[in-house]
Amino acid sequence: MSNSFAELGDALTERVSELKRLTLLRLEDGAKDLFTKDLSGLEASVRALEAHVATLKSCIQTELSAMPKVEALIEASRIQSEHLSAIASNLPQRLPSRAPAGAGPGLAAGSSVAGAIGPGRGLCGGGGQAAGAGPGGGAEEAARRKREAPRWYVTREEFDGLQAYMRGRLQADKLNAAVEELAGHAAANQRLVAGAKAGGGKVAPADRKRATELYHSVATKDGIKGHFWFLESDLREGVAIKPDKTGKSMLTILRHLGRIQEVRCNIDGASTTVYVLQEGSCR
């Protein structure tokens, strides 16, 4: 009997303890509403976070799908950069401008390389025949070049091979700019002579006297006839080369390199120097 009462007491004690624990979990109605609101807010935050995560996943997937295009663009840019570097390393020191038929000295429309440049070769314009041209195309090219003033530019190798006292403070690009301008002077004189030869109808009234003098006193002389040339007085109108100490140094270098040749002529009884442009050999 004592054992049964002891077991019954233990059971009652355990039950009371359990009821105490359940009592601690008891909540009032007001507290329940607060907890319900907190749980609803927490659920809304979790759902919003899930939506943000889904958006991030979508953006990441879009970026990953674009990666092959980006890699292809980077590779194309690298190849183009290599091509441009190769082109830049093979460009001449100065890209000449080709003046149109009606433009005056120093004026140019567009920019084009007048010939090929290589070690020991001049950059030529208005002289020689284009390489690789066919029989018909070669004749047309030769006829076109014959109507243009030759532009035999100075290469870097030729300029570096000059004596230091001849170069002075000159630069190759400035020297080639002078070649371009001198060709413009020669082309202008050629137009005046052609106009005087045709009767002077196409020459401006202010230039007819000068055109006639050039035609009779210069253009028909030996060593000048059939060539492009300019006068020493033409340098007064220049920009890249003028009749000063620097301009004379440029003329000396160009004469030394075979770009020009001097011929003495008399115009109205006064002796003057005529510079004949030489045509380079583009091989």
UniProtKB/TrEMBL annotation:
Residues 127-148 are annotated as: Disordered. GO terms for biological process: cell division; chromosome segregation; mitotic cell cycle; regulation of microtubule polymerization or depolymerization. Pfam families: SKA1. Residues 127-139 have a biased composition (Gly residues). GO terms for molecular function: microtubule binding. One of its GO terms (cellular component) is outer kinetochore. It comes from the Eukaryota. Belongs to the SKA1 family. This is Spindle and kinetochore-associated protein 1.
